[in-house]
Amino acid sequence: MSPGVRDAIQFFYNGIGVFFVVYMFVYATFLFLAVTVGSSTLFGTRRRNALKNELQSGYYIPVSILIPAHNESTTIVSTVQSLLLLDYKLYEIIIVDDGSTDETSRILIDTFHLRHVSRPIQRKLRCQPAEAVFESRACKVPITLIRKKNGGKSDALNMGINASRYPYFMCMDADSVLQRDSLEMLVRPVLENDNVVAVGGSVRPCNGTEIRDGLVKEYHLPNRILPCMQVLEYDRSFLAARILFDKFNGTIIISGAFGLFKKSVVVDAGGYDTGTMGEDMELVVKLHVFCREHGIPYRIRFSTDAVCWTQAPEHLRDLVKQRRRWHIGLFQSLMQHRNILMNPKYGLVSFISYLYFLLYELLSPYIEIFGVFTIGFAAVVDFLNFPFWVIYLGIYAVFSAILSLTAFFARVHTADLRLSFRDAVIAILLCLLEVSCLRFILAWVRGAALIGYRRKKMTWGEIQRKQINFQ
Amino acid sequence: MSGGETILYAYGAVCVCMILFNVVYNLIRNRRDRRIGQRSARLQEDAVRQLDRLEDGGWFENGYMNRLIKKLKKVDWLIAFDRMLDDPSVQEHPSFELYERTVLERILVLADEYSRRQDMEAAYYAFFLSGCSVLRQMDTTAVQECLTGYMKLPNVYCRVNALQALYSFGSRESIVGALETLDRMEGTVHEKIITDGLLSYWGSHEELIQLFWERYDHFSDRLKHPILNYIRYRTGSCKDRMFEILADEKEDKELRLAAMRYFGKYPWKPAHELLCTFVRENDPVDWEYSAVAAACLAAYPGGKTVDVLMDALYSTNWYVRNNASASLDAFHLDYRELGRVVDGRDRYAREMMMYRLDARALDEEKKKTGQGEAVS
Description:
- The complex is a heterodimer of chains A (471) and B (376).
- By secondary structure, chain A is an alpha/beta fold.
- Helices cover 53% and strands 15% of the residues of chain A.
- Chain A has one domain.
- Chain A contains 14 helices and 12 strands.
- Chain A has a 10-stranded mixed beta sheet, sandwiched between helices.
- In chain A, helix 1 (3-50) packs parallel to helix 12, helix 9 packs antiparallel against helix 10 (347-362) and helix 12 (386-414) crosses helix 13 (421-449).
- The longest helix of chain A is centred in the N-terminal third of the chain and has 48 residues, at 3-50.
- The relative contact order of chain A is 0.13.
- By secondary structure, chain B is mainly alpha-helical.
- Chain B folds into 3 domains: 10-107, no CATH class; 125-235; 238-367, Leucine-rich Repeat Variant.
- Helix content of chain B is 72%, strand content 0%.
- Chain B contains 21 helices and no strands.
């Protein structure tokens, strides 16, 4: 290798080195802050509840619960049953069957004694027309089933908003179940502050957990390795980060599986975008934009007490489909609202939240893959300090694993869940595997998600469901 | 060691500390739960001894009260004491009332002490007092003043618990004073909490409402609204005042709507004409008046109302049509009487009314099968 080429490579690696040191330093700082702030908040919340610092709110805020369902015959009844057990007084349940080809509607009609009604629905938001509306008043709260032509999840949610009677709506997935107190907890931030326009709840994988009568009876880590690692990932990446964003009104994603919204603001903002796969994130970003553009004082909150249990994919192919969808949704949301980037009008939402999602979520797989290639190339051209690289990798893995465990144990302890010794050991062992293997697999999946984007941008992909261990 | 490595090691060390903190916190928490139970048992043992002495015509042991009050300055002891008071074996003791009154007299002195603590602890103290109904028969002037001061604390739970305590044993002057203080503070309590809290007031609602009317102008619109709602839930004897608000075009819209709802609950002939006018006007900008008036007319059966509501079914506003159909449905008109709409050419009006008839059938079915229960 000639000295000129060697100098050029050296120059290249110096630049790469500076970039990665800065990139990883910022990321490590963010993770560290998220986990420490998240853990402290969880403990603070627990203490607050013990001292009766809580608002009882069973019927102050009427809520319409919207469940978009497409071929959800396996889980839909469990989901509705869990909703009927909520410790809440004033709510309604609206299921929107988005052109299912299975028995979703039939099962609901038979189980909940729904009757066909000629109900007119105001089209405040654009959506596919209703083919039939069914209602029942025979249960604790009114249940409405709307059957419509397939138009996607956003379209189904817009239909649900149009049909809802109450000023707040909660959206949830058809494969999720709520704890008895979940809705009450989700509503609490609205009672604390009138300006709250949206509240996100904690979504946790229910694999391995036994939920009876709306209460967690047995908490175990899942038997399979893949969902088990997702439990750790959820606590580190989602729970902790969202608590941190909540501190400065910087939440820009509320999971579609569990979120509460003020209907009037959502309708004024234009409702769910039917042209995106990440409708949950897009809506929240849109609410930030709408409220700031119109000078509306607002807060978007995250409630750690409100818990929704959902099924984590048990097979790698299902996880790949899910993460691919999430990544495309993230890409679409960030691109659609790119004017937020580095825009002082949006304050910390722009300079922290948006930037974080852009650099450490959307672009991270490409940066990580690029990093792997540069290491490979460095080895080829004899630029790699192998012992240092191993130590650095080890430190990184242990650091991330410790963060995962911190978030996991903080969440388990503060939620009054009893963890067996076996599960604690499994968590400790798997956190390293999650950081060193799953993370790279998912980086690859996310990196490849945008390949063929134009062709596949609205393809959801079916994920295999199984009956939730609910009753 | 490079700077980057040092930082990573430092972060790792802090994370290890966090894990240790988790473990230690969990142990402490378990111990704390056990300890509160043990403290409650010890307090109960002492209390039963005092109760027996009181029953025998004696008085408290020397130093008992001072020891107790010293302990109750700590919030965990107060939690334990609260639990102890709830124990049936203590409550059923013949001397319990005397014991409770005497001890509470001393606990009231702690109001000032707790107001200087963390907001969460102050909130718990207020919560504790809100559960002591015996305070209604005691002189609590000083503690009521202190609780009114809690309205100035930024913690919403502190404010709500203090208000709850005042509703539980406070005077109407204290309650109105506390709400006035709250009104002056930044960030208020959700109006439904205020309405609901007022409904739980232990004393005479008529007198409290009287005082509200006297001080009505002292409040901002954001507090007037829950107060008007409270009056609506409580009494039908404020029609003149409510009518003034409803008829005053300069009045805030939400307040006028609250007054309108009042006449939906308590029908009053002079209001009937005004409600019909609101529905007929069908103002496209302030359509809320027409919509709420259409809903309120459900309380005014009669030919004139039916005509107004039938016309409202053809309104361009969806909410006006919806509420008009619901009110017509409340009159239990049959298909023949609704013929003009059901057989009419306006599809929207027809659909709206047909749905009401469907919904009525569902309600009747529910009545036949009993109250709704979760289908399993």
